[in-house]
Amino acid sequence: MTQQADAVVVGSGLAGLVATYELTKAGRRVIVVDQENRANLGGQAFWSLGGLFLVDTPEQRRLGIRDSAELALQDWMGSAGFDRDDEDFWPRQWARAYVEFAAGEKRQYLHDLGLRITPVVGWAERGGGFADGHGNSVPRFHLTWGTGPEVVRVFAEPVLEAERQGLVEFRFRHRVDEIIVDDGAATGIRGAVLAPDDAERGVASSRDIVGDFEIHADAVIVTTGGIGHNHDLIRANWPVDRLGEPPKTMISGVPAYVDGRMLSITEEAGANLVNRDRMWHYTEGINNWDPIWPDHAIRIIPGPSSLWLDAEGNRLAPPNFPGFDTNSTMKAILATGYDYSWFVLTQSIIEKEFALSGSEQNPDITSKDLKFAAKSRFAKGAPGPVAKFAEHGVDFVVRSNLPDLVAGMNEITRGPKLDLAHVERIISARDAEIENKYSKDAQLMAITNARQYLGDKLVRVAKPHRLLDPEHGPLIAVRLNILTRKTLGGIETDLNSRVMRPDGSAFDGLFAAGEVAGFGGGGVHGYNALEGTFLGGCIFSGRAAGRAVARGSTERG
Known about the structure:
There is one protein chain. This protein folds into two domains: about 5-225 and about 490-555, 3-Layer(bba) Sandwich (FAD/NAD(P)-binding domain), CATH 3.50.50; about 280-485, Succinate dehydrogenase/fumarate reductase flavoprotein, catalytic domain (Flavocytochrome C3, Chain A, domain 1, Alpha-Beta Complex), CATH 3.90.700. About 35% of the residues lie in helices and about 20% in strands. The chain has 19 helices and 21 strands. Helix 3 (about 70-80) packs antiparallel against helix 4.
């Protein structure tokens, strides 16, 4: 077949939209293919909370946060823990470039597209307790006004306008099965045409084949995401040596189409895959009482006050507090031999500290309704979506006293029955530390530290109180499950998002961006993510791919 476009983009998620936007700005003709229908434009990003990792912003400075590119890079490198000479060669360079982007033009780049952010900066993934180790030293989680749909919108609108002008052609329900390689260069794709399916966004669609297709282009850009819904592939790549045996029960934080197919297809074409064992799953997953996709999970984004118990009712050791060190907590939970844990908290804590990840779980911010948001965030009682989970969620137990609470927990346990006397001793010991403003309890010290930050004190961290104080009741327990989410490794790429071959050479005509490329380089996060960096990684790597193809780049990054 003859050349049909300047570039073919595989995947219409955020990274694909960004790459297409950059290509069309340069006047290039683009074909975008996706195995889902048009309703899924924007992919996973649509469902996200819309948090963005930004450094030294006006929002931070107004809240008294002193941040810098140097401090952010120290945090990034301490979290990433890069320790592989070959596989981490490009990720190290991507990390430096991305932090420079986050501290430099990223905010203005997005602002010029029409994206705005909320005034309170969140403090996500607070870390493991060492200045040069994992975690954010200061709050950097900038929440998009409009959440994930708004991040998608600012790139989708110009791409859709380019479609109307004839620069972009979408081919939905086209599943790629092969990258065409001629004389060592990627020249196109071929695959199967899937039967039309009008399923709503996120709903699992059919895989019935009605035909085949072949598309040729000067460049192929792969932007198809990771393996987050493919539990078999997750288990096959699970880092047993670092985290322990993979959980028997996993629930999915991403739709069914996040299947990882293009990773092996790209590898078969000759690409180098690196850091396959690095992944980012959450320990605070709850089953969605109103699911959209199979095994639909929601993550609790917790403040620091809930008491975290393992399956046997033992308190997790520092730094395994809510919102501090995801992988350390994962390892501690799985070391018990069980794949779940418990939050124990009060009504006062759930009202102020529980946020749910996802655009649909934050309708006030997603709809950009200022009055609705003010009423929802400052009114007494838990936010509406949180209250519905407490009422309908299978993982929630709400009782007026501790004996009834523990009895309710034992009704939904997947492991040992909890001993009331044991749980009561742990809670009472914690409560005894509340009488003073200072404490030897590391979690209470962390809460005191958090409340030094105005944003946390106002809207995120409850005033310390005794869990067994009836004035703060009722008592609440939440069974926490392992929620699958992000792939941190993937296709190795240089700083132009060009795919690399196993021998270290560039793969002519083949590019990759977003999660399929480990958000840049094949693993820009290393072993740990600082949160707010997934959307930004899609934007940064998608931009690099689009610009490189647009200028016909052949130089090394």
